[in-house]
Specification:
alpha+beta; Alpha-Beta Plaits; four-stranded antiparallel β-sheet; 2 helices; 4 strands; 22% helix
C-alpha cells in the first residue's frame, strides 16, 4: 500500500531515526493525567490542607494535589494522577489524615 503525502514516510531510504524521529508506543509514552475531585469535610485550617495533601501524595501515581479550603463547609481537593485511583485508596488516605471523604467526581 502506498500513498503520496510528500512527508517522505513512504520513501524506503528514510528510516525513522535518520530524521531524528522516534516512534514510541503508548505504554512507554508519557501517561495521560487523570484528575479526580474530592469533597472533604472536617478541614478548618492550613494544617488540615497539609495533612490531606501529604496523605494523597503518597498514593501511587499521584503527581499533584490542589486543595481549596472551606473552613465552614466542604473543602475540595483536586488530585492529578497518571492512573485511575480507587475509591478505597482515596477514602483510606483521607481517613488517615483524619477527615471525611464526602464525594468523588472523576
Amino acid at each position: 500500500m502506498s500513498h503520496e503525502c510528500n512527508c517522505g514516510c513512504s520513501n524506503e531510504n528514510n528510516s525513522k531515526t535518520s530524521q531524528g524521529l522516534q516512534i514510541t508506543t503508548r505504554d512507554q509514552a508519557t501517561p495521560l493525567n487523570i484528575q479526580t475531585e474530592l469533597k472533604i469535610s472536617g478541614m478548618t485550617c492550613g494544617h488540615c490542607v497539609a495533612s490531606v495533601t501529604e496523605e494523597l501524595k503518597e498514593l501511587s501515581g499521584v503527581q499533584n494535589v490542589d486543595v481549596v479550603l472551606d473552613a465552614k463547609g466542604i473543602s475540595t481537593a483536586t488530585v492529578t494522577a497518571t492512573q485511575q485511583l480507587s475509591e478505597a485508596s482515596l477514602r483510606e488516605a483521607i481517613d488517615e489524615a483524619g477527615y471525611t471523604l464526602e464525594a468523588i467526581n472523576a
